[in-house]
Amino acid sequence: MSDAKPVTVLSAMVRPLLEPHLPDGLDVRWFASMEEMQALAPEAEIGWFDANDKAPMVAAVKAATRLKWLNSIYAGLDFLPLDLLAEREVIVTNGAGINATTIAEYVVMLMLTQAKGYAEVVRAQDRKEWLTDSPGKKELAGSRALLLGMGAIGKLVKTRLEAFDVDVVPVRRTAVEGALGPDEWRSQLGEFDWIILAVPATPETEGMIGADELSAMKKDAILVNIARGTVVDQDALVQALQGKDIGGALLDVTTPEPLPADHPLWDLGNAQITMHLSGRAQDRMFQRSAQRFLDNLRSYLAGGEVGPRIDPALGY
Description:
By secondary structure, the chain is an alpha/beta fold. It folds into 2 domains: 7-98 and 284-301, NAD(P)-binding Rossmann-like Domain (Rossmann fold, 3-Layer(aba) Sandwich); 100-280, NAD(P)-binding Rossmann-like Domain (Rossmann fold, 3-Layer(aba) Sandwich). It has 10 helices and 11 strands. The protein has a 6-stranded parallel beta sheet, covered by helices on one side. A 5-stranded parallel beta sheet has the order 2-1-3-4-5, with helices on one face. Helix 2 (34-40) runs parallel beside helix 3. It is elongated.
């Protein structure tokens, strides 16, 4: 590294969490608006360009021609120009694992809500109606779940569901005892009560659940998607739900987001839509992200490793 202080462009939103702990030897520049981020990006060696709107993030990355390390709170960065980052040999660290605990808890909540018909219980309370029977009678115990995706989130989903006596079968790159290989799971879809999607968004996973996969599922099987809306053929899913070809879908993610008000998914009684809130159902996301960035920053300045890194060529 050169003697010049690395220009580090950061959001003013996390300034209170970062500034008191930043090491010496940095040229830190804070942005409080998307316009400021765009103006500062070309000088950045280190950039943390996160925003609610992804378009300014893409623009900032494209403008950051001196960038050596890009950090993000997002786990999925498939919306960024990853080919450009790979070409420029930029180190990219993402938010993998930051939200894993809360998302894993969300999966359990969604599955319990579905099994017990809890949405109907809440509606009955709104109507001040005293139900005399449970609208849902399923138990998680003894059911079987196929888990696609064994990253930080998938691993926590597995342990939490196993605590409820769910038989969780993950899909791994190589088939081993208790797991299926990438060429095996489709032929066994009909054996599972729950199909849980926790895969990264890549060209290989796009549309991995389509009409053929949905038709192979059990009639009462439930699809749980906490990955990306693009991993499911949404038109085929709507058709399967309308025809009651599967038991239902628990969707934290959709295509597009936000889902248009006139989209048929909203009106389907066998679909639950949770507006991509699973990762936000916590109060420590920014604290965890700030601490990870600070730890990585010290290592980066010392010539060490940073993580978790994604391979821009692979997309995860």
